Amino acid sequence: MTSIQMALRPMRRRMRLRRMVTWTAYGAFVGAACTLLVRVASFLWLLSNAWLWEWIAYLSGLAAFALGAWLWPISDLAVAREADGLGLKARAQTALMLESLDTPMARVQREDALRALSGLNAKALPLKAPKPAWIGALTCAALFGLSFFLPNPQQEALDAKAAIQESLAQQAEQVQAAATSLDENAVTAQALMKELARELDKAQTAREALLAIDRAERSLNEALSQMLTDAAAALESAGQDALAQALMQGDSQALARELASIPDASKALAAAAASAASAEAAQTLSAAAQALESMDADLAAQELTALSDSTAQALEAMANARTAAAGASMSSAGASLGSGGEETQDANGQSASVSPQAPQKQTREYEAVYDPTRLGVSGTVTQERGVWHEGTIYEADAGTGEGAPEESVPYNRVFAEYAQAATDAMQSSNLPLWAREWVEEYFQALQP
């Protein structure tokens, strides 16, 4: 660094500070505008933690401009030009141009420039935020403040979502407590319930919770079936076919009778435990063998069905969690329809956009529903034939209905028929239990 560059350093810092003040003002304006846009978006869409995104938008704009102003380089010639503008009469610029020369004239000029720069007050360069920037920032801030006096149409849906998350957190605690209370031999059931508790705690929507519960139930049923199969196979290999059959049937009384009738039943169970394919089946058989050593066949039978009982407790806890999640989902759906403009999801994950005017419009359509009930006494009967899949033929008879398409039928006269049709379709399809409960609760809520 040359002597001239060293002398220009105070002016360079002042210029950088001035640019930072200017750019920061524009950054405040851009950040405030982005914050206002986020606020407007929170009125149109369901935006969780809108206040956090508003702060992120504002601070991002402010920090980006301020940091860019401080890090953007300033050329030596620009600094010299600013210094000369404060009364140096081109001394700094000339010294920079002649810095590579070592002539007497160049040395004299540099010395003169250095004396002038040493007496230069860099603070004479004014620091002032541009007027358009702070006016724009204040305008955005005023509009942002006024927006809090307007009712947010998404608030009801946000409250419902918060209630869902709180309900799911409570269900996660209950599932975790149920997992802790299970028998120590029910290792798989405990692990699945603890994993379910974690997923419920992380779930953001009722649908995510319902899917997690369904996965846990399937895994638990598969684990139970596998354990019973392993234990029964071990008993059969030990020559206890009747005991294996009673175990597969889950009949504790039959198990107790069989155990009481078997000589040296504890040794037979111990031998079966040694040949069991899974650790849980071996633990269950060993616990039953230890119980038989005290000549207690009933206790041994309880030990053999202990994992099944634990699984039943786990399934009951999962069912309770599913019922709570389905109820929370229904509440959320009602809040979303009431708030307007919200995108909702049905049980199959299909999205449906609900406009602010949808409730009123759909009510009019329901009132004008054409009821196709056949009277059987008049009208022309036609038949339609069609092909479905591999040659299966279906026939449908259609006739005149009650009223006409342009006429209206009272809502309460057709609701029961539609509800029954939905129930029949639901029962004939392979829907999970929670989805069926969801449909039933939906029509109960619409019942006139």
Provide the fold topology:
Blueprint: H1 3-7, H2 9-44, H3 50-71, H4 76-88, H5 91-97, H6 104-118, H7 131-147, H8 155-181, H9 187-202, H10 206-237, H11 241-249, H12 252-261, H13 265-274, H14 279-293, H15 297-304, H16 306-339, E1 343-345, E2 351-353, H17 358-367, E3 382-388, E4 392-398, H18 411-428, H19 433-446
Antiparallel strand pairs: 1-2, 3-4
Helix pairs in contact: 2-3, 2-7, 4-5, 5-6, 8-9, 8-16, 9-10, 10-11, 10-13, 10-14, 10-16, 11-12, 12-15, 13-14, 14-15, 16-19, 18-19
Structural features, described:
With 448 residues, the protein is mainly α. The chain is 71% helix and 4% strand. It is built from 19 helices and four strands. The strands form two sheets. It has a two-stranded antiparallel sheet. The chain has a two-stranded antiparallel sheet with strand order 3-4. Helix 13 packs antiparallel against helix 14 (279-293). The N and C termini lie far apart (87 Å).
Structure classification: mainly alpha
| Average residue-wise pLDDT | 74
- In quaternary terms, these chains amount to single chain
Shape: elongated
Q: Number of helical runs?
A: 19
What level of helicity do the residues show?
over 70%
| Strand content range | under 5%
Sheet with the most strands, sense and barrel status: 2 strands, antiparallel
Q: Could you state the order of secondary-structure elements as H and E?
A: HHHHHHHHHHHHHHHHEEHEEHH
Q: What topology, given as strand order, has the largest sheet? A: 1-2
Q: Kindly report how far apart the N and C termini lie.
A: 87 Å
Radius of gyration: 39 Å
Count the E strands.
4
Q: Could you list the spans in which at least 5 consecutive residues all have pLDDT below 50?
A: 336-406
